[in-house]
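User: Please check token order:
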Amino acid sequence: MTTQIREEKPAGGIRDLGKMFGSGQSTGRQFGILGALVVITVIFQILTGGKTLDPVNLINLINQNAYVLILAIGMVMIIIAGHIDLSVGSTAAMVGIIVAKAMTEWHLPWPAAILLGLGIGAAVGAWQGWWVAYVGVPAFIVTLAGMLIFRGLNQLVGNANTIPVPADFTFIGGGFLPEWGPYTGFNNSTLLLGLVIAAVLVVLELRMRRTQTKLGSDKAPLWVSAFKLVVLVGVVLYATFLFAGGRVGTSFPVSGIILGVLIIIYSFVTRTTVFGRHVYAVGGNAHAAELSGVKIHRVNFLLMVNMSVLAALAGMIATARSISSGPQDGLGWELDAIAAVFIGGAAVAGGIGTVAGSIVGGLVIAVLNNGLQLLGVTSDKVQIIKGLVLLIAVGIDVYSKRRGGPSLIGRLLNHGKTPGTSTSKPDSLVAARADDSTEDTPALVP
């Protein structure tokens, strides 16, 4: 048996910044893509003469990409578990056309139509989940078939026509927070929302440090927490003033509120619940998870149901924004969602990924699309650039895993040194892989 001799990592300085959002290889990649998002935004802000961060453009950016980000939330859980779902765009289009027809031709009230759409999404997920979880057909094949089936049903139900939706329904996709109170030059609802989010961030950080102190666990230095809060609160307040300062009648979009609620819920589910830990366990090693008592068939089934319900919601939001549903809805949505997840730090082999990382990856794609359009770049070149970004992101992930070392960000924070040394190279690689996999892979069972 080879003896491991691991060096203690020196603390202090820039290395402590690695503790700001956690540690590990996955967090390093997500921290890196967050930096990339900032750099891309600044570059386009300069090249477009300030149009990228214009309030009107930011509001449109959220409205135009909310459905992709919602799909990315469900897709990251699918990919963590080692699957893929190619049917989400067709599912969204099919639900959108049925809901539109239910309201215009069957005179169903819009709240009931939304429940109908979510129910259809659940039924689609149950159908596909049964094939994946209990029959054993790979998710790639099942959802590829679903992509064809539900696209055909979209055109069959709608007769390949565009169907409008009532004005009340458009609120979920094109509505904004209401105005109230005294005139301040800004939307007061958006200002209040930003202040509440900033206060919550401070409370959560203080509570986390207090909990870490009680448990005696390792925590970041106080200055790192203070720096983290300054950055986060500063970004939130700056974004608040941008969204609140748009043209009269606009503010933070309702679709953005729905997206934010979903991010909070699913971040909690994946990070702290038993089901969330089981999802990571199935993706990390399904056989070991089953031996540990994880009911992998039920996990896979529920994941497919969840994904289709989110796809249904995304389809209804997109339909509400465009004020109609047509045969071209949902085309390519699954590719954007999958790209967002991988750019956001998810591992190709499964077992690693976060909701927050996928949202950042989706925002990278959104800012790229938006910035290139503002610069007048043609759609063919936009597709080429997006493809290269995806390829590079996944290539970095695969290369890092082959080497068994930390991410590029991790190397910078550690001044290029490896996490530890050993007397044999194979053992050091195993140790490095173990260290890098712990951050996003919780215990198998509670």
Q: What stands out?
A: The first strand starts at residue 4 and ends at 5. The chain has 17 helices and four strands. The two ends are 31 Å apart (CA to CA).
